């Protein structure tokens, strides 16, 4: 089935949907995402204000790299093995990822003032909310745009790795603006994609709820990355 035909069918189902499970599932997506953000923020703040924890993580490269490897492993496990995991296990792994991510992000409190972090968070929330709303209500098929953005994301990752050796502050700032554009677009695309998958689902069984959990993880990653790129842009007011 062609993508356009599938999208037309989804729009037709959306127009006639009467099930109460869809709005409940979308609430689960945003609730899980918000919970993960709160856990990450509280963890980051707590670790940043604990000299012992900061020394443990950033005073030992093995611990720091270990946390990064655990982060990557958790994302791959949840994403790649979601069908074999129970909903409870997948949720606990998502929570664990939020904690580990918070520990690694605690370093931002050393590089930026709390006022800049707070301002950036609220700007991120506004941009994310607007684009997620657009992705939810738009009738335009964003799948082709999403593919382009995904390819651009791969290019951004490669360019970022290159800049680790070049160490160009101007190039870093350019990459930050590109990163904002990419994740603003991905937020809309992921929201539409999640909506489409949940519209095609019936009921509230465990398999459907795991789809909602994966949607929450996708939006969580969009929010975090958008926040970090914006923080680099607004980082002129560093401590």
Features:
mainly alpha, 239 residues, 0% strand, 10 helices
Explain this structure:
With 239 residues, the protein is an all-alpha fold. Helices cover 84% and strands 0% of the residues. It is built from ten helices and no strands. α4 (61-80) packs antiparallel against α5. The protein is globular and about 50 Å long. It starts with a helix and ends in a 6-residue tail after the last helix. The model has no long low-confidence stretch (mean pLDDT 88).
Task: Furnish the topology, listing elements before pairings.
Elements: H1 3-16, H2 21-48, H3 51-58, H4 61-80, H5 87-105, H6 108-111, H7 114-137, H8 143-166, H9 169-199, H10 206-233
Helix pairs in contact: 2-5, 2-10, 4-5, 5-10, 7-9, 7-10, 8-9, 9-10
Helix and strand sequence = HHHHHHHHHH
Q: Report the oligomer.
A: single chain
Uncertain segments of ≥5 residues (pLDDT<50)?
A: none
Mean pLDDT: 88
Instruction: Estimate the helix proportion, in percent.
Output: over 70%
